[in-house]
Write a structure and sequence with these properties.
Largest sheet of chain B: none
Number of helices of chain B: 15
CATH architecture of chain B: Orthogonal Bundle
Helix content of chain C: 40-55%
Oligomer: heterotrimer
Number of strands of chain C: 11
CATH class of chain B: Mainly Alpha
Number of domains of chain B: 1
Chains: A alpha/beta (256), B mainly alpha (339), C alpha/beta (298)
Number of strands of chain B: 0
CATH class of the largest domain in chain C: Alpha Beta
Distance between the termini of chain B: 24 Å
Largest interface: B-C, 38 and 37 residues
Order of helices and strands of chain C: HEHEHEHEHEHHEEHEHEHEHEHHH
């Protein structure tokens, strides 16, 4: 079981507190949606959970060990990161990208399940991009790129996936496909944290929502509770209401 | 990260590529040793092996061999440094010469030379070159490191080159004697003529250490394809990676420049030509570029030896004549591709 | 009326013509006298290393106002001791003008615009061409001797040159020599070096190899062609010279083990190899005896 905890972390840049005394516990078995308006500090919080950004005060703990004290290799085997915009600087093939996901396990000969090519093939199959494996990443659409990066995360076999705006700017079919894939990843031993802008997707797929505002956690719980009209109004400044259509939650947003 | 060449060049695997390049280097090396103004009959090799000294044998061992090995070593360091720098900065236009590494290394060597230290300590000249190279790579990283856009890199490189160039021509300007300035000026243009085993012993250790540093960064460079943050999440120690690349380039290029002068564009041409053959993987590019750089430099050095009329054609001048138009074509091509 | 006017004009024209011719005559006379009556120039400035050497060889220091700053460098200037007591200039028009010279000597490769400006400032400036042969050196000496008024001194030097001329084809056995400059540069036919080697009874390796006026040769070629004598410029000054390191190349050390010495190397002062003037004759003086030694060894 992998636990990722942030305790009283403070992150500041240019005398602005981007993260102001946040404590958060991530456990497997959840698809956690990290939501909030722009500038609330969602990406920064995600990066601090990964150890990319270091807090000035407080600390992040992976399995109760300080993330900065752990070896990079250990951390990379437990956390995988899907970065915003799915960056890729060289025109390499999809297969090469997915293979990169296996880097944390380069030196384990016994621990990983199956050879690299098997893992890669499986990851590509589960994300449905096997047909694209020899295409250059730079020639793919946004949705296909994100799927490639997701396959790369899966190839690493890390229990926790942290995704930064994985579906922002994608067409609806890819949005749904990717959110569904992320949900499929959640099990008793694995979990996902995703930064999301779309409240509908957040409500539909996430089992837990963390609503951020101005560097603090405003609400943390199930979508019905977190996405109350009062909360949305206070944090986003808009009038919205959660309704149900065929059992699926929908946020109808009104005026300011 | 493995790479798949199926759609690029049929039947050429990574091992195949390395074998081809190694064969090319071997052929050029032999040509460099065997061709020249002096006729070296095959029997000379026997003499050398048996330990008999003969004029042709001495020419072989003391003149041809060090020159060929230096061309190989210098070319390999330039090739691998170019590939590593492009991998680090994630930009195919980066090159040790364009970004000021060679210029600063040359300045370091000129200063050491002028103060007369090079006569007293044989290690002073490559050391001066390496300190100069280190300063420039460090400076480039400060100016352009976090934002590897082509504009920032080129501007930073221009700035560093300008400073190094200004100080070098200051040294030339204040030379007490025009013939001294003349000499330094031509040394800067790059040459391997009449180098000896002494040069080799002085420069080779640093070149080897630098190259080893660079070879250790292959995984990290591959991971950097996805950006620094993702590479970090995959377990790559970014700071260590940057340090190893900076040090590796400084040692390898610094030592090369201090022994051979400024030989530019090898670090630009070779990675560009070989990148498609390794599936654009920056980590896999390193070793082929070392071999390719060695091949290119050996070939150029063979060419300069056959232009005997008039003053000697300098090696750096030849590589610039090939490299500058190549760079131009590259820029035009990249503009068209809208990168 | 017309006739009167015509005749008046005719007379006027004639008068003008006469006056004009008279003026010219007077001016030319004064010019001639300026030439013949003028003493030798008393305030001479030289802005070029080679003309420095010619000047200091021919003229006493009282008449020399300034020489170029390079004249004080003992490796490239034979008269560097003399130059230490002279004012030195950096070849700039303004400083030359302020020295109020009555003669300025410049070299063929002195900056052309400086020469032009000095001329425009009304100073008497003479350009001495580079001497690429003994003939050219001789002509330079004659021309300068006349301008400087030192015909006597020049005659002595010219007689030495003529002496060398006469020796040119008197040698039966000619060893092979090469003057090997920094960066491997060698002087072929059509240069002063080539001629100096010839008049001293040597064959120039550069010519044997088919090089033109300026060629290059590397250590390997020198080793294989094995000339009887290799002349290299000596660097005394203390600043380290990259090219000097070639002569300590391990290849030569190894070859000396085989056949001691593999090459006979002679060091010439640099001032003997860069300008065509009397100092060149001095530098090559020893060649005659060296030639005898080389022939004796054979």
């Amino acid at each position: 079981m992998t636990f990722l905890t942030a305790r009283n972390i403070l992150i500041s840049k240019n005398n602005n507190n981007i993260i102001n005394n946040i404590s958060l516990k991530i456990r497997p078995g959840e698809l956690v949606g990290l939501i909030g308006p722009n500038g609330a500090g969602k990406t920064t919080l995600l990066k601090s959970l990964l150890g990319i950004v270091k807090p000035i005060e407080g600390g992040v703990y992976l399995n109760n060990l300080g993330i900065n004290t752990l070896s990079r290799n250990y951390v990379s085997k437990h956390l995988s990161y899907l970065a915003q915009g799915a960056p890729c600087y060289w025109p390499v093939t999809v297969k090469q990208i997915v293979e990169l996901g296996c880097l944390p396990h380069t030196y384990d000969t016994k621990k990983r399940e199956g050879s690299i090519s098997n893992i890669v093939a499986e990851s590509m199959a589960s994300t449905g991009i096997s047909d694209l494996q020899f295409r250059k990443v730079t020639s793919l659409s946004g949705g296909e790129r994100t799927l490639t990066m997701l396959a790369r995360c899966l190839a690493g076999q890390a229990p926790l996936i942290l995704a930064d705006e994985p579906v922002t700017g994608l067409d609806p079919s890819h949005q749904i496909k990717i959110m569904q894939l992320l949900k499929n990843q959640v099990s008793s031993k694995t979990g996902v944290v995703a930064v999301l802008h779309d409240l509908n997707l957040a409500a539909k797929y996430c089992s837990r929502l963390v609503l951020m505002s101005e560097g603090k956690i405003y609400a943390d719980g199930v979508p019905e509770t977190v996405l109350s009209t009062q909360n949305i109004s206070n944090v986003y400044g808009i009038k919205a209401k959660m309704q149900y259509l065929d059992g699926q939650p929908i946020i109808l947003s009104g005026s300011i | 990260m493995e790479y798949n060449n199926k759609h690029l060049v049929p039947y050429l695997s990574y091992a195949g590529l390395l074998f081809l390049l190694a064969a090319l280097v071997t052929v050029l090396f032999l040509m460099s040793v065997l061709w020249g103004t002096a006729e070296i009959p095959i029997i000379t090799f026997l003499d050398v092996l048996l330990g008999n000294e003969s004029p042709t044998g001495i020419i072989l061992l003391e003149l041809r061999l060090p020159r060929a090995i230096l061309a190989l070593a210098v070319g390999a360091s330039l090739g691998i440094s170019g590939a590593a720098l492009q991998g680090l900065l994630r930009n195919p236009l980066a090159e040790p010469g364009l970004i000021g590494v060679s210029g600063c290394a040359a300045l370091g060597s000129v200063i050491v030379f002028y103060t007369g230290l090079s006569v007293t300590y044989s290690f002073a000249l490559p050391l001066g070159g390496m300190i100069g190279a280190c300063l420039s790579v460090g400076l480039l990283y400060c100016l352009a490191g976090r934002d590897p856009s082509i504009l920032t890199i080129i501007l930073a490189g221009v700035a560093i080159n300008t400073v190094a160039g200004a100080l070098t021509i200051l040294a030339l300007n204040l030379a007490p004697n025009p013939f001294a300035a003349f000499e330094v000026f031509f040394w800067l243009l790059g040459s391997l003529t009449d180098r000896s085993m002494n040069h080799l012993f002085v420069a080779l250790p640093f070149i080897v250490i630098g190259t080893c540093f660079l070879l250790s960064t292959r995984r990290g460079l591959d991971a950097l394809t996805l950006g620094e943050d993702v590479a970090f999440s995959l377990g790559i120690n970014i700071k260590s990676l940057q340090t190893r690349i900076v040090l590796g380039i400084a040692l390898a290029v610094g030592a090369s420049v201090s022994v051979a002068g400024v030989i530019g564009f090898v670090g630009l041409i070779v990675p560009h030509l070989l990148r498609p053959f390794v599936g654009y993987s920056p980590g896999y590019l390193l070793i082929p570029c070392a071999l390719g750089g060695a091949a290119l430099t050996l070939a150029a050095d063979i060419v300069v030896r056959f232009a005997t009329q008039g003053p000697e054609l300098q090696l750096g001048v030849l590589t610039s004549l090939i490299g500058a138009p190549f760079f131009l074509v590259l820029v035009i091509k990249m503009r068209r591709e809208g990168q | 009326m017309e006739f009167f006017l015509n005749s008046f004009f005719a007379t006027a024209k004639l008068k003008i013509a006469i006056i004009f011719v008279g003026l010219i005559f007077i001016l030319s006379i004064t010019n001639l006298s300026a030439q013949t009556n003028s003493e030798k120039p008393k305030r001479i400035v030289s802005i070029n290393l080679c003309t420095d050497q010619l000047l200091m060889a021919l003229v006493e220091t009282e008449r020399i106002i300034s020489v170029s700053h390079l004249a004080r460098d003992s490796s490239i200037s034979r008269f560097s001791d003399k130059a230490k007591n002279l004012h030195i200039n950096y070849g700039m028009a303004e400083e030359i003008y302020l020295l109020k010279p009555d003669l300025v000597l410049a070299g063929e490769y002195s900056k052309k615009y400086v020469v032009a400006v000095i001329r425009e400032l009304g100073l008497n400036i003479v350009t001495v061409p580079v001497a690429n042969s003994l003939e050219a050196m001789r002509n330079n000496l004659l021309k300068l001797a006349a301008i400087l008024g030192e015909e006597a001194k020049a005659k002595i030097i010219i007689s030495k040159v003529d002496n060398l001329f006469s020796l040119k084809n008197t040698y039966s056995k000619k060893p092979v020599a090469i003057v090997w400059r920094t960066r491997g540069l060698i002087d072929g036919p059509g240069t002063l070096v080539h001629e100096m080697l010839q008049v001293h009874g040597f064959r120039n390796l550069a010519k044997n190899l088919g090089r033109g006026q300026l060629g290059n040769i590397n250590l390997e070629q020198i080793i294989m062609t094995r000339p009887d004598l290799v002349i290299i410029p000596e660097s005394k000054n203390g600043y380290p010279s990259l090219s000097q390191l070639v002569f300590k190349h391990p290849a030569l050390t190894s070859l000396d083990r085989l056949n001691k010495p593999w090459l006979t190397i002679m060091r010439f002062p640099e001032w003997g190899l860069i300008c065509g003037g009397p100092q060149v004759l001095k530098a090559y003086e020893l060649l005659a005896s060296i030639r005898m030694n080389l022939l004796a060894k054979k």
